[in-house]
Specification:
single chain; 297 residues; mainly alpha; Tetracycline Repressor, domain 2; 13 helices; globular
Length: 297
């Protein structure tokens, strides 16, 4: 594969958007590592760094599969929407067959990587794939598609925890719920741009169903739930000052992004979507990991 072709595929899957879920996958991995070392439970059969490498591969393959399948399935709508007509398939940069093949290859690689990790992750991998691929269909029949997207990304922390421990636990599940509400909220904000297009083409979204003003209220409600989960997680005595600082930054950035977007002014949607949420994800996850490392040592 040439570098130009590689860049096309990276653009196809918006590789830069891994900034949303990957940091939370690292949170789940660190929680699992702490659980393993605290209880002297050598569940994973690999050295720590190799286990981390496998988790990162799973994240990359799963996200590649989900994004490329979404682009494949939405190719006809993307061609009609001026905002998305420049995407790789409608622009003729990649063919639909190439993108579908890319989806299949990444799905297979994802499942093969879970086979290397542990039997539980392998057993759950078809369910995870079903969730993240199913999202691409949801806009055709439900305005709750944003929550399905959030559910897909919420698998990151709990999946990474399972990779290192092989067991479920409450704390990574709380982080997953946090990701679910946070992602669903900012996806509603992003979907404001396509309200009229969605209505015209019988596609479903919260903005198309409720209008811009009410959609922003729903996004605010979901982000309040995310903020409450941050506070609930912080009650755990394994967290300290770093978590408190990161939590304040995360909640502050949630408030900030809502101050940027108004029903009659969507000019700053991309700043709210990419910049604000990307910074929030990195700062909060780094603060969680820092506290976990400090408390461990």
């Amino acid at each position: 594969m040439t570098m130009a072709k590689l860049r096309n595929y990276l653009s196809l899957v918006k590789f830069s958007h891994t900034i949303f879920a990957m940091p939370f996958a690292m949170v789940g991995f660190t929680l699992g590592w702490r659980q393993q070392t605290t209880h002297s439970n050598a569940y994973t059969k690999y050295p720590l760094l190799f286990s981390l490498f496998l988790v990162i591969l799973c994240m990359v393959f799963a996200r590649n599969a989900a994004m490329s399948f979404n682009r494949y399935l939405d190719r006809s709508f993307d061609a009609l929407n001026p905002r998305t007509a420049i995407r790789e398939i409608p622009a003729g940069i990649l063919s639909g067959q190439q993108v579908l093949l890319f989806t299949v290859i990444n799905s297979i690689l994802f499942m093969l990587t879970t086979w290397w990790i542990n039997p539980l992750c392998l057993a759950l991998s078809p369910i995870a794939l079903a969730v993240i691929l199913f999202y691409s269909y949801t806009k055709r029949f439900t305005a709750l598609c944003h929550l399905v997207l959030g559910l897909g990304l919420s698998l990151a922390p709990v999946g990474s925890y399972l990779a290192i421990t092989g067991t479920f636990a409450l704390l990574p599940i709380l982080f997953s719920l946090l990701v679910l509400f946070w992602v669903a909220g900012f996806d509603i904000i992003y979907a404001l741009q396509d309200e009229e297009f969605d209505k015209h083409h019988q596609l479903h979204s919260i903005p198309a169903a409720l209008g811009k003003k009410n959609a922003l209220h729903v996004a605010s409600f979901l982000h309040v739930l995310a903020a409450l989960l941050v506070c609930l997680i912080g009650i755990n005595d394994i967290f300290g000052w770093f978590f408190a600082i990161g939590s304040g930054a995360f909640i502050g950035l949630l408030i900030y992004q809502h101050s940027l977007v108004k029903p009659d002014d969507l000019s700053k949607v991309n700043i709210a979507f990419m910049t604000s949420n990307g910074i929030a994800s990195i700062i909060f996850s780094a603060s969680v990991i820092a506290d976990l490392l400090i408390k461990q040592y």
